[in-house]
Amino acid sequence: MRHSGPIRSTALATLLLVLSSCVATQLPPISSQGRSFKPLGDEAKLWEQSREEEAKLLDHVKLYGDPLLDSHLEHVVARLNPPGMAVNPEIRYRVRVVEDPALNAFAYPHGSIYVHTGLLARMENEDELATVLGHEMTHVENRHMLRYQRSVLNRQIGLTVATIAAAVIIANAEGDALGNGEWGKAAALDAFGEIVVGLGLELAFTASVNGYGRGLETEADEGGFRKMSAAGYDLRQAPKVYQVLLDDRGEPKRMEAFFFGSHPRLSERVEDTKKYLAAHPAANAGNAADDSNAFARLLRPVIRDDARLNLDLGRLKIAEGELDRARALMPEDPETHFLRGRLRLAQAAAGADPAGQRQLRRQAEDAFLQSIALDSQRAAPHRELGFLLYEREQLADACVQLRRYAELAPEADDLEHVEDRIQDLERDGHCR
Ligand SMILES: [Zn+2]
Question: 271 CA distance to ligand 1 centroid (A)?
Fold first, then answer.
C-alpha cells in the first residue's frame, strides 16, 4: 500500500515516540543477588530465545576470529565485572568480534557480547573499549532486555522486527525527513542489519539496532562508568567513543550509529559523560597503561582489515582514514600497502578528471610495488600491478607481473583470463 510522504512520516514519528518513551519495569540487578541468583520464568525463556537466535546469527555472520584479541576482550570484561556478578554460576560473559564495518556492539541477555570490527577499528585505547564493554555488560547485569520486554507499552505495540524494518524502509525512502528524531541516521540497513532483519532476530534487533530507550541507555552508560572507575580505567576517554560515532566522515548515511543512537542523542551523551566526570572527579585517574599497549597492538590488523571491508563497500573516506592509521602503525605491512593501492584505484574510478585519475593510478602502482618489495610471495599485488602496466602499455613489465601472478596463484578463479592476456603478450613478442 502506498501513502504520501507526510502521512508516512507522521505514522513513523508516532511509532518512534511511543518506542522511545517506553516505561521499563524495575528489577534488581543480577549482581545484587550474587551466587544465589536464578533467572525468573520469563527470563529463562528469554535466555533460551537468545541462545536460539544466537545460533542462527552465528551461521550467517563472519567472526573476525583472532583468538588473542578475543581473549583480551574477555580479560577486560573480567576486569570490569563486579564481584556480585562474577560469582554467579548462571551467567558467563562471552565476547565475540564480528567482521563488519558498522559502528556497533550489542549484548544478548544471557551474556553473549558482540563487538563489530568497525567500532574496534575507530578506538585508540583500552579505556574506550572498556566504555563500550561496560555499557553492554550493564544491559546484561541490569536485565534490560527483560525489563524492556515486560513493559506494558511494548506488548501493546506488538513490537516486532517487521514493524521496525518497515519503519526503517520508510525512513530510507524519505531520506532526511526524520533528521531530528531518534532515527535520524537511518538511511539503509547495513549488511549486519539485513541479516538481523532477514532472519527475524528480534532480540538482536532490539539490542543492536533499536536500543532499549533513553532511560535504560542512560542507565547502561552510568553503570559502565562505575565499572570503569572501579577497574581503574580512565573515564576521560569515554566521551571519545561517542565522538567517533558522531564523525561519519561525510560518507553516505547508514544505519550504523545505533549503538549510541542518532546525532542529537550522541551530542547529548558527550555532554552527559562530561557532567558525570565533573560530578565524580576521583574517577578520572586511569592506570590501564600496560594493558592499553597490548590492546593497541592487537588493534593494528583490525584497523587494516576493517579498511578492506569499507573499501569493498565503496566507503572510500573511511577506508582511507583507516589505512592512513594502519600505515602509521605498521609501515612494513605488505597488506596495508596493497589495500592502499586498491583504494587509489577505487578513487581513480570514482574521479572525473583524467589527469587526477592518471595520478591516482600511478600512486596505486607505487603502493603495489611497495607491497611486493615487502613480500614478493603474495599473488594479488602482482596481478593488480600487471593490469595497471598493461593499461599504460608497459607491456614487457606487465608480462613479468602477470606471469608471476599465475605462478603464485595457480588455483585463482581468474587465472584463465590472466593466462589469455599473457598469451596475447607472448604472441606479440612482449614477453622475454
Ligand atoms: Zn545500549
Answer: 17
Q: What pLDDT, in 10s, does the model give residues 386-412?
A: 999 999 999 999 999 999 999 999 999
The pTM for the full model equals 0.83
Q: Evaluate if residue 138 carries a pLDDT over 50.
A: yes
CA–CA gap between residue 360 and residue 365 (Å, rounded)? 9
Q: How far is the CA of 212 from the centre of ligand 1 (A)?
A: 7
User: Is the pLDDT confidence value at 313 over 80?
Assistant: yes
Alpha helix (H) ranges present in 351-414? 354-374, 379-391, 395-408
- 104 vs 191: which has the higher pLDDT: 104
Q: If you write DSSP's letter for every residue of 172-217 in order, what string do you get?
A: HHTGGGGTTSTTTT-SS--HHHHHHHHTT-HHHHIIIII-S-HHHH
Looking at residue 379, its amino acid is A
Where along the chain do its domains lie?
Answer: 5-284
The rounded Å distance from CA 104 to ligand 1 centre is 10
Annotate 49-67 with b (16+ C-beta within 10 A) or e (fewer): bbeebbeebeeebeebebe
Q: What does the block give as the cell for 83?
A: 564481584
- Identify the pLDDT of residue 326: 97
Say how many Å lie between the CA of residue 421 and the centre of ligand 1: 53
Which H, E and C letters describe 74-114, residue by residue? HHHHHHHCCHHHHCCCCCCCEEEEECCCCCCEEECCCCEEE
Cα(207) to ligand 1 centroid in Å equals 7
Class of residue 424 by CB neighbours under 10 A (exposed 0-12, middle 13-18, buried 19+) = middle
Distance 155 CA to ligand 1 centre (A): 20
**3-class SS of residue 29:** coil
The closest of 14, 15, 2, 7 to 165, measured between CA atoms, is 15
- In the reported structure, the alpha carbon of residue 225 is separated from the centroid of ligand 1 by a whole-number distance in angstroms of 13
The residue length of the chain stands at: 432
Confidence of residue 154 (pLDDT cuts 50, 70, 90): low
- Residue 187 C-alpha to ligand 1 middle, in angstroms? 20
